[in-house]
Amino acid sequence: MQNKYTTYILNEQKLDNYNLLLNETLFHNANGYIGVRSVFEEGYPDGFESIRGQYINGFYDFSQMKQAENLYGLTQEKQTMLNIADTQSIILHLEDEKFSMFEGKVLDSIRWVDMEKGVTGRYVQWRSPKGKEIELTIIRMTSFHQLTLFTTSYEVKPLNFSGEITIESSHDGNVLNYTDCNDPRVADDGIRYLTPISCEIKKGASYITSKTTKSNCTITSCVKNILLQDHERQFTIDNNNAICQMTTEANLGGTIKLIKYAVFCDSIRYEDCREQAGVELEKALSTSLESLYKKQEDYLSVYWNNCDVKIEGDDELSRAMHYNLYQLIQSVGKDEHSNIAPKGLSGEGYEGHYFWDTEMYIEPFFTVTNPSITKNLINYRFSILEMAKENARILGHSKGALYPWRTIMGKECSGYFPAGSAQYHINGDIAYSIIAYYLATKDLSLLKEKGGEIIFETARLWMDTGNFHNDIFYINDITGPDEYTCIVNNNYYTNVIAQYHLNWAVKVYDLLKNTEIFDELVNKIDLKFEEIEDFHAAADAMYLAYDSKLKINPQDDSFLQKRRLDLQKIPKDKFPLLLYYHPLHLYRHQVCKQPDTIMAHFIIEDVQSLETMRNSYDYYEEITTHDSSLSDCIFGIMAAKLGMEEKSFDYFCHSAKLDLKDKHKNTKHGIHTANMGGNYMAIVYGFGGFRLKEEGIFFAPILPVKWVSYQFKISYEDSRIIIIVKEDICCFRLEHGSAKTIHVYDKIYHLKDMLIINRRYNKEERS
Ligand code: BGC
């Protein structure tokens, strides 16, 4: 166990519902395919709450979505990521006593996440009520090398006795999803989605195959227990729960070691998932656990080498940053059947749906560190393009595609359309992310094969949603990112991203015009040159609201006419407002859940003056609750851009530890992946002033006064650049690849090997 910033260690706190649930999330294991919450192997006594979950990314069932008034086109059915067979349970008997953290005496208890090794650990020293003392060391891993595999190594060391030990390891097919009827961010239906259809023992392993009720998906899980000492073994199957009981003699000073292999295969990825589970188990057993650990570490060493951010001068923040980036690689889907959910694979908040969080908060990290992961996320969007077209038809559009606001398999899942389906900006967000991928990599192949088609089909939708009126292009009756203001006209964020999107649709058309796929593509989607001309004209004529009195961009046409909500007068326990105020009350006030215009100023900065951005910042900050975890990081980034370094740092300190300190009081439902991507952006785009544009890459580093230095890396085209920011200099080093032109503090430099540039001082350092 290491005690540096790559390991997050926790001395066990009070064993109450709050800590147990929180730590189930914080210490979960995931690899982008499987996610396992960190429930104690031996479970909790009755009366304690647990969200005992194991999930597969993108594995779902449908359930009915009741609409009180069945208006045309409202979502009737949603998807839910399912809790799958439980393979966590290991119960330890020391003769007639059962190990439990809630009985006897816990002499020592530590949990940790080792982010270099890619494992979680649990160490317990325990004295039983009758005085037997043991040491338990449990290591869990969801393998990056073999995505279907979850391993638990369970070691028992008797400290003051020799005697019989019995271990009961179970594999239980009876599972339900978690529900909470008081929180709209969690499901409330309590449906049994997954039914076991077989539970059997084959070659010493248990196999449970279960089927979903509606989506016609199947999953097989397979468990094999290997106890390294001589032992007696007995299998029982009780109501689709396969229990393997192993009894052995423990000797004082010796160690009993069990390795529990669990593999999962689902019918979305595998034709015959039962057979494949057998193949995957054999594959796992054919290598030693040590070599699986080594492969895990190797995988992560490449990952960290691509993306690590180092902060000198604050180990706690450094560790928090590391934790955030670790959770992103744990959470992100590694194939085109999956994406990254707001809670990753750590819990059931938002039911495992995918949102715009992917494109605007998480891809900006992967695109400049591990672009192949972004490519994969774009492939997923392409795989649901046909459903996005169907979605557009449901909403009355005769042409083009509208991506669902939240989904797993491609169909819209948002039940409340004003704050859901109406967020048409998701089309612009997806296009924006494809363009960013292209700008960072100059990889035309993605545009040719998939990206171009997505950009054109989604651009078409703006033409049908908006319209020219007196030569100006308006977009009415949509919702912007701020979910406390719904169904508005000319939301600034939406209009500006639509303009960017339409302009780029024209550029992509030109980029692809002379390539071999052009004719086939335009024929496939029946794209006419006149449409491209219309895109151009609409972008040119796009209405971007500006208030000349306040010198700000109004969030939308009616926003400034509304009464301001005085946030200071609202009691602290009435936040987040969405849990305590009727939506209409919020919509009729100037109050924001999250950045909207400020987000637009961050992502598309060149269409407004600094003065407008500064005034807008001051204006919106006063009325923003930050009830969404997507908020702080963007306010922090823009504070850095606008010269408010201290404020920027405060926002960062808050958001960097949002989950580790449970600042939103809902980490028990899962981590906040968008915020985690946002924290990367806070350092790189905020303090580092990094921007990725058509004209190249830009930096304007500042140094938080409490730090000695920080560094990060950017992959750009064929090169990787290391950026180190210190007190009086910033250093740009080409780690590999060809020389690059870079922009630093508005000047252009040629980076061949290394560049050292005097740092522009922060405002408070100067004063
Ligand atoms: C935010 C959305 C976000 C969703 C999932 C909501 O609270 O308002 O912007 O996409 O959470 O993270």
Automatic annotation (TrEMBL):
UniProt-annotated catalytic positions: E483 (proton donor)
Binding residues for substrate: W356, D357, K593, Q594
Keyword Glycosyltransferase among record annotations: yes
One Gene Ontology molecular-function label: hydrolase activity, hydrolyzing O-glycosyl compounds
Pfam families to which the protein is assigned, alphabetical: Glyco_hydro_65C, Glyco_hydro_65m, Glyco_hydro_65N
Organism superkingdom: Bacteria
Keywords: Glycosyltransferase, Hydrolase, Transferase
Keyword Cell inner membrane: no
Domain spans labelled Glycoside hydrolase family 65 C-terminal: 691-751
Domain Glycoside hydrolase family 65 central catalytic: 323-680
Family assignment from sequence similarity: Belongs to the glycosyl hydrolase 65 family.
UniProt xrefs under PANTHER family: GLYCOSYL HYDROLASE-RELATED (PTHR11051), PROTEIN-GLUCOSYLGALACTOSYLHYDROXYLYSINE GLUCOSIDASE (PTHR11051:SF8)
Protein name (Swiss-Prot/TrEMBL): Family 65 glycosyl hydrolase
Species this chain originates from: Alkalibaculum sporogenes
